[in-house]
Amino acid sequence: MKTPLFALACSAFALTLSACGLTETTTPVSSGGNGEISVSSTSDACTLSATEASSGTLTFRVKNEGTEATEFYLYASDGLRTVGEVENIGPGLTRDLVVQVIAGDYVTACKPGMVGQGIRNTFTVTEPVSP
Amino acid sequence: MFANYLIGLREGLEASLMVVILSAYLVRSGRRALLSRVWVGVAGAVVVSLALGALLTWGPRRLTFHSQEAIGGILSIAAVAFVTWMVFWMASHARGLSAELRGRLDVAAEAGGLGLVIVAFLAVGREGLETALFLWAATQAAAGSAGSTVAPLIGALLGILTSVAMGFAFYKGFLRINLSKFFTWTGVILIIVAGGVLAYGVHDLQEAGILPGLNNLAFDVSAAIPPSSWYGTLLKGVFNFSPATTWLEAIIWTLYVVPTLILFVRHIHRPASASAGVARVPSPATA
Fold first, then answer.
1. Closest-CA residue in chain A for B63?
2. What CATH number corresponds to the domain at position A82?
3. Which domain holds residue A85?
4. Is residue B286 part of a domain?
5. Which region is the signal sequence (chain A) (predicted)?
6. A76 contacts chain B (CB < 8 A)
7. Are A114 and B11 a contacting pair at CB < 8 A?
């Protein structure tokens, strides 16, 4: 009795999540095909596999290759407004940040030790190229 | 492994502390029978969080940043509302226990019992999804084909086990407090812990962009209390103390904790028979 009830509640919740637009598929929506960007965070570096992507849903796959817990942020061009963030990335873990982005300039940051301004880089999102 | 251990410890403490104090409260006010409802709430939150976390880790869809922060923030604030109501409900029923008719007490216990399931569910579930996503990420690292490592998963699990052991020790400690002081002390601690959870919820909503002022810091003592240190972890896990606290968090914490504490202390120290009523609570109320 309990299992079907739970399964029902769970699928109802999962459906709600997607119906309300709370989730995004990991398949890139943008035609650019660079919807997934891998990020390597170490104690002194924050290396992205690409520094440019086309607008739509982006997935940052953040791997912590350092020794401290880290966080990854995507800021607006002012370097203040948070567009997206993923925290609690322990050493050896890989976690995803999924965000919807429009064209413009952004700032990425890894924060090894979870403090301070982090190791920052600029990131550009372009309009998808129309054929 | 140590960094993952500390994350597990912090997340575990954040989830367990409210539950531990509420449980001690129930036992001390002669409502041991209602403990099972707390466990139902806790188990429900753990199962839902782990299932949802697995779905979002291995399924085709991911939770967007905004949704995760909004869920964490709203559940935290809801948990605080329920805990506050519960503290006052239990305090008033502890006081009037001897004077009240058995039948009326049972009706109240029934009503509060449903609330107990919800409050335990929210206390654990508010950050349950984040903890589950962290644990599944550690599992992925352990199961990954290339360069797999079990150290993060072991560290995370040991951290959570430590938080459970600490929760149990807190529970035993709370039960040792002199009965006449028990309700005051645990109530005060619970309100301070709840204040931290409220500030945490506000921070989540600030990160989601629902509330403003994410970058207006009231203070930043990250240099003195690094969040990656063991003492930073304990302060965060127990009181939800954030070394970099925004003005909005600080203001809301104060606006919640100060008036609630004053109301609570007045409530429990009402003149004459009030404190005697607390002391006369029959411990093994076999209802």
1. A23
2. 2.60.40.420
3. 26-126
4. no
5. 1-19
6. no
7. no
